[in-house]
Design a protein that fits this description.
- The structure holds two protein chains of two kinds.
- By secondary structure, chain A is α+β, with helices and mostly antiparallel strands.
- In chain A, 23% of the residues lie in helices and 26% in strands.
- Chain A has seven helices and 18 strands.
- In chain A, strands 1, 2, 3, 4, 5 and 6 form a six-stranded antiparallel beta sheet that branches.
- The relative contact order of chain A is 0.09.
- Chain B is α+β, with helices and mostly antiparallel strands.
- Chain B has three domains: 79 residues, Phosphorylase Kinase, domain 1 (2-Layer Sandwich); 193 residues, Orthogonal Bundle (Transferase(Phosphotransferase), domain 1), CATH 1.10.510.10; 65 residues, OB fold (Dihydrolipoamide Acetyltransferase, E2P) (Beta Barrel).
- Helices cover 34% and strands 24% of the residues of chain B.
- Chain B contains twelve helices and 14 strands.
- In chain B, the strands form three sheets. Chain B has a six-stranded antiparallel beta sheet with strand order 1-2-3-4-6-5, with helices on one face.
- In chain B, β13 and β14 form a beta hairpin.
- The longest helix of chain B has 20 residues.
- Classes of the chains: A alpha+beta, B alpha+beta.
- Chains A and B meet through α1, β10, β16, β17 and β18 of A and β5, α3, α11 and α12 of B.
């Protein structure tokens, strides 16, 4: 394939399983890039559409596509060269739940951004993601050329055993985001247990009877284990969307990290994992207690006339991020107590 | 206006010029279509030889940073003796015109949001060893106006050139300074070491600039003044007194004080005493601020010197003077506010008085 002059070859192909990747040097930007050649096929139009979408995608967790070269026979994709070990490597085995959750969250974030861009990865597996020296996970090697439709069956099996969703073994192959979600579940399981249960390595795989995420060598929160297990549902429709899984992971990674500022006239209170509760009373007009449960700020007591924005406060309500508490009945007019409640926006530190 | 390129010109067989956009201190900016990716990009080309000198090296460095709060450097091209930097095109305006033109400052909640995003941007750059060197409001792009839908630091690529021009300006005195729009814009936010020993400028210099910018955004004041008179004050790094309105009201005092504390740590004379960008992100993680939508409306009633009503896109909104940050608006003034539903009429908080649109 004839590439623009700016790219100088840097040596032999690096074998990437399904396809080969060639290292090049981009003279203009003085950086190493990877050329991936996609063989011709009936899906040229779809590949073109997905490439356009990938150009727009700028995720910290997905390889960046820089340039495209074409000839009569194939498409060459010039993309970010990613250094580091792939997730298959035992050197990256997670030592504890925190490391595990952070890595799996990065993977979910990357897939989530891919899906939001309208693309399906098609080949999520531990060998197709690397962790760089800063601990940042990056997904690469999209299965762009994977065939689908009825003709796929005659070409042969289209996935990677162990990570391919059960529906990919059917006669008519249709790639959906749920295929990536299954592969995400299997990859997360592999990463945690350093292998896959026998049921998943059969061709086609068999459904798991018990939740293997509860049996990892470190303990992850039940809600996370349950969400990850649902990713491995044999019925595609029962798998969660990847962004839902990402939110569950986020919830647990950010647990105990919030802070709230409550301003009540001249008084200001801070709530966090050390000071969990505040009770506010305004004469005989009303009272409210709020407690931080590690995930959200919850109304644990409400008496008299108390409103959260425009609705009456009730025990069990979560305080929204932007909130004014009004204490006192409407007859008091502007003499009611107004308390502002603002929550911090912590981020996941990798 | 620049006549270096014409609409329809194609650079490196890939970028087709669509229109001239603007000029910065060092460069002309065009909108171009990237034929390979089908998306629009910002095509920047240096104004003169001294700018060109550093264009490439800076582009190479900036291209390494990949963060949603940093305008992405996409490409660098030498074609027909000209050099071009291709950057992500941002459909917005710079922070100075977006947030600091109709009012000299914004409320602490909005400052916290901007601070948090900028700290993340600087942290991403610092992780790859990139120093911006010229952080100032005109190098930050804001999408969505006061709603700050997204915020991107730009011109990492040309930062070093600004340093060179600044050195000349300082040596040349006020006359050179006023001739250099870039230098005038940068000076109020420059760290002492950037003025005194430019060769020692490093990661902490960006932290100082960020602190100085946030001081300006919170209070409407340059922390050390502007023009050459700022130089000795910056060198002394004596923390300025902030206008009393910043901390005078119960509603804003707690958050404003926390922000001022963080700013204070950024404005330490000794660069090693300033927080790292990562530490700054952590500090901002603890700030309690909400991201409620902002509206612009007009005060049509103010009673008993205590409360009044704003007419805005949501209809009529109640406000109390305790919720006003900065000078109180009078009847007929435009204000910026967030609207909270209540079981009676909606309530505005915070409220910031705006200048008349034509004065901005």
């Amino acid at each position: 394939m004839q590439l623009p002059r700016r790219y100088n070859p840097l040596g032999k192909a690096i074998d990437g399983g399904m396809s080969s990747v060639f290292p090049f040097h981009d003279q203009y930007l003085d950086r190493k890039v990877a050329l991936k050649i996609i063989p011709p096929g009936p899906n040229a139009r779809r590949i073109q559409d997905e490439l356009q979408a990938l150009f727009k995608l700028r995720s910290k967790h997905v390889v960046q596509v820089y340039d495209v070269a074409r000839d009569a026979f194939s498409i060459g994709i010039i993309q970010e060269f990613i250094e580091g070990d792939d997730l298959f490597s035992d050197d990256l085995a997670p030592a504890d739940a925190e490391t595990y959750l952070k890595t799996v969250w990065q993977l979910a974030s990357g897939i989530s951004e891919i899906h939001e861009a309208g693309v399906i990865h098609r080949d999520i597996k531990p060998n197709n993601m690397k962790v760089d020296h800063e601990g940042i996970l990056k997904i690469f090697d999209f299965g762009l050329a994977r065939h689908e439709g009825t003709q796929a069956a005659t070409i042969g099996f289209v996935g990677t055993h162990g990570f391919a969703a059960p529906e990919l073994y059917a006669n008519t192959v249709q790639f959906t985001p749920a295929v990536d979600v299954f592969a995400f579940g299997a990859t997360s399981l592999f990463y945690g247990m350093r292998g896959l249960p026998n049921e998943l390595t059969l061709r086609p795989p068999q459904a798991l009877q018990t939740n293997p995420f509860l049996g990892l060598s470190f303990q992850i929160p039940d809600e996370v284990a349950e969400a990850l297990f649902r990713c491995l549902s044999f019925e595609a429709a029962k798998r969660p969307g990847i962004s839902e899984v990402k939110l569950v992971l986020e919830k647990h990674l950010l647990s105990e990290k919030h802070r709230a500022l409550v301003v009540n006239g001249p008084k200001a209170y801070y709530l966090d994992h050390e000071n969990r509760s505040v009770s506010l009373t305004y004469g005989k007009h009303g009272a409210i207690s709020v407690r931080y449960d590690g995930f959200s700020f919850v109304v644990v007591g409400a008496e008299g006339s108390v409103f959260l924005n425009n609705s009456p406060a009730q025990v069990g309500d979560n305080l929204p991020g932007a909130c004014v508490l009004t204490i006192g009945p409407p007859e008091l007019g502007s003499k009611r107590a107004y308390v502002t409640f603002d929550i911090s926006n912590p981020g996941i530190v990798l | 206006m620049s006549d270096l390129l014409s609409d329809g010109d194609v650079i490196d067989d890939r970028y087709r010029v669509e229109n001239y956009l603007a000029q910065g201190g060092m460069q002309y900016v065009y909108v171009a279509l990237d034929k390979t990716t089908g998306r629009k990009v910002a095509l920047k080309t240096p104004k003169n030889a001294s700018a060109r000198k550093r264009f490439r090296r800076s582009a190479l460095v900036a291209a390494r940073v990949n963060h949603p709060n940093v305008a992405k450097t996409l490409d660098y091209i030498e074609d027909n003796g000209m050099t071009f930097l291709v950057e992500e095109l941002i459909e917005g305006s710079d922070l100075k015109s977006a947030l600091m033109s109709r009012s000299d400052f914004v409320d602490p909640y909005l400052v916290a949001r901007v601070f948090h995003h900028l700290a993340k941007a600087v942290a991403a750059a610092h992780h790859t060893g990139v120093v911006h060197r010229d952080l100032k409001p005109t190098n930050v792009m804001v999408v969505g106006g006061y709603n700050v839908e997204s915020l991107k630091v730009t011109d990492f690529g040309i930062a070093k050139m600004a340093g060179a021009e600044m050195e000349e300006a300082i040596e040349g005195g006020d006359e050179t300074l006023s001739a250099s729009a870039t230098a005038v814009g940068a000076l109020p936010y420059m760290a002492p070491e950037a003025i005194d020993t430019p060769e020692t400028v490093g990661l902490p210099s960006d932290i100082w600039s960020l602190g100085a910018m946030m001081f300006h955004l919170l209070s409407g004041q340059f922390p050390f003044g502007s023009g050459l008179r700022a130089v000795p004050k910056i060198m002394a790094a004596e923390l300025p007194n902030v206008s009393s309105f910043v901390t005078s009201k119960n509603q804003f005092r707690p958050l404003a004080k926390e922000i001022l504390n963080i700013i204070g740590s950024c404005l330490r004379k000794d660069p090693t005493e300033r927080p790292s960008a990562d530490a700054l992100v952590e500090l901002c993680n603890a700030l309690c601020y909400t991201v409620s939508e902002r509206s612009i409306g007009r005060v049509y009633e103010f009673r008993h010197n205590a409360w009044g009503f704003i007419r805005g896109p949501e209809g009529d909104v109640f406000y109390h003077k305790n919720s006003v940050y900065g000078p109180l608006p009078v009847k007929g003034d435009d204000v910026l506010y967030s609207c909270y539903e209540s079981e009676q009429s909606p309530r505005a908080l915070p409220v910031v008085k705006l200048k008349k649109a034509e004065q901005a």
